[in-house]
Amino acid sequence: MAASGAGSPSRLVQYVVVRSDLVHKLSWPLGAVITQACHAATAAIHLHYSDPDTQQYLAELDSMHKVVLGAPDEAALSGLSENLTQAGVSHKLWIEQPENIPTCLALKPYPKETVQPLLRKFKLFK
Question: What number does CATH give the domain 12-124?
Fold first, then answer.
């Protein structure tokens, strides 16, 4: 995909970062992990519903763009959440209850170039 040119609108993206160890080391069913990502994405949209980028993202219902990345473990996910908070990036860290296990996080929709540098070390979830 070509980068946005001068004057062209930025592509809004909602990033979701899921712990890959849940599937690959802790043997969670794939459906349960997908459910965690859905919870986080929905919660991030709900928490930032009135945000202009969120409203624009929702207005383009048939062309929403999400990127799902993998964090290797709980420490990496929690560290990312701390880094995003320090950078002022709005997100929701989903903590599965009643187990109290951080499973994933989702950012509110942002222009890709605004947040992608903060997520560069995370690869697509496999």
Answer: 3.40.1490.10
